[in-house]
Amino acid sequence: MKAKALSDGLPVHADRLAALGNEARLRVVRLLLAAHPQGMVVGDIQAELGMPGSTLSHHLEKLRQEGLVAVRRERRFLWYTARIDMLTELVAFLYAECCTGGAGKDKKVCKDKTSKQR
Predict the structure, then answer these.
(1) For 45-101, how does the pLDDT look when each residue is reduced to its tens digit (9 = 90+)?
(2) What distance in Å separates the CA atoms of residue 105 and residue 116, rounded to the nearest whole number?
(3) Residue 15 in contact with residue 9, Cβ under 8 Å?
(4) Where are the beta strands (DSSP E) in the chain?
(5) Which of 32, 105, 106, 114 satisfies CB 3.0 to 4.6 Å to 82 for a cystine?
(6) How many whole angstroms separate alpha carbon 82 and alpha carbon 63?
(7) Are the CB atoms for 48 and 31 separated by under 8 Å?
């Protein structure tokens, strides 16, 4: 049963991690996190990162497809925001097995995790 729990959501999380594994996309997500909750318009993201429009468009679409960013249209502007819920879920997935067994446990991390769960 534990093996099943470990694999739940694995393909989705692997795809999201792969999307974040690209340096340009990681820079975009970090920038959008800094601009949270308002987000940023595409032109401002492009200016801040110095990225060509077509390249930025490709990266934003990949992040949107993986559910890591959201887009909304206001008049003629596209606003992008980081999906905090999905990023939190991804971190929680990575952290879920921390301190569940093994002799090499980091006692401080495990103590901190246990106290936060109460």
Answers:
(1) 999 999 999 999 999 999 999 999 999 999 999 999 999 999 999 999 888 877 776
(2) 17
(3) no
(4) 40-41, 69-74, 77-82
(5) 32
(6) 9
(7) yes
**Domain carrying residue 45:** 2-117
pLDDT of residue 1: 38
CATH of residue 72? 1.10.10.10
CA 71 → CA 24, 34, 46, 64, 109, distances in Å? 18, 16, 15, 8, 36
Go through the chain and tell me how many residues it has: 118
What pTM was computed for the model?
Answer: 0.79
* Closest-CA residue to 41 (of 76, 6, 85): 76
What's the total number of domains in the chain? 1
